[in-house]
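Researcher: I've got a protein sequence and the SMILES for pyridoxal-5'-phosphate. Could you write out the 3D structure of the bound complex as structure tokens? I'd like something to compare against our soaking experiments later this week.
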Amino acid sequence: MSLQDITARIAKAESAAGRAIGSVKLIAVSKVQPNERVQAVLDQGHRCFGENRVQEAAGKWPGFTAQFPDVDLHLIGPLQTNKARQAMELFSTIHSVDRPKLAKTLARLAQEVGSCPDLFIQVNTGEEEQKAGILPADADTFIAECRDLDLPVQGLMCIPPVDEEPALHFALLAKIAERNGLRDLSMGMSGDFEKAIALGATHVRVGSAIFGERVKPQE
Ligand SMILES: *Cc1c(COP(=O)(O)O)cnc(C)c1O
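Model: Sure. Here is the predicted complex with pyridoxal-5'-phosphate in place.
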């Protein structure tokens, strides 16, 4: 697959869902990809990228942003509070706000710095032990708590369990967002982004379908 193929598939899914062409943001997930593959996608004009680790992004991106100042970086992986300050400097958007302690830290830093990235609250829709995210039953309370802290919560994010039908999880996320008056939904990856768009995704996070299989595992 190429960037062009993915963009065409997104456009097709948008129109099938009766949504405006170009209304879904494509986040090209570049974690662990060799720099030459990232460079190739930048050279084709794409500017929105996702990384799941602060450290890796901090090493990889300053070189590219010197070349392409309009790069828009999204953090899609778990965030430790001791890396929050660095994350706020690197990323325009954080998709993984998932616990009160992190929300409070972000709120304090936002006060101090005078700005804050756009935020998504990650919901653990599959209630998986090993996965980050607030449980669906706790989501309404947590969203309210983030709003009380004046955090710019833009929407919700989920990563469905690998062995389950993702549509059920996308629909659940959409429902939680709707009842909380949140419009943006960060959902859908290489294998299921069209389904996610059909169910209201505004941001899809696509890695391997654009860049090819990740060369090395992350850990
Ligand atoms: C790696 C990753 C993706 C992209 O996965 P692909 O299957 O390669 O498209 C999307 N979202 C998150 C949170 C990820 O960590």
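Model: The chain has one domain: 3-211. The chain has a mean pLDDT of 96.
Researcher: Great, I'll pass this along to the crystallography team.
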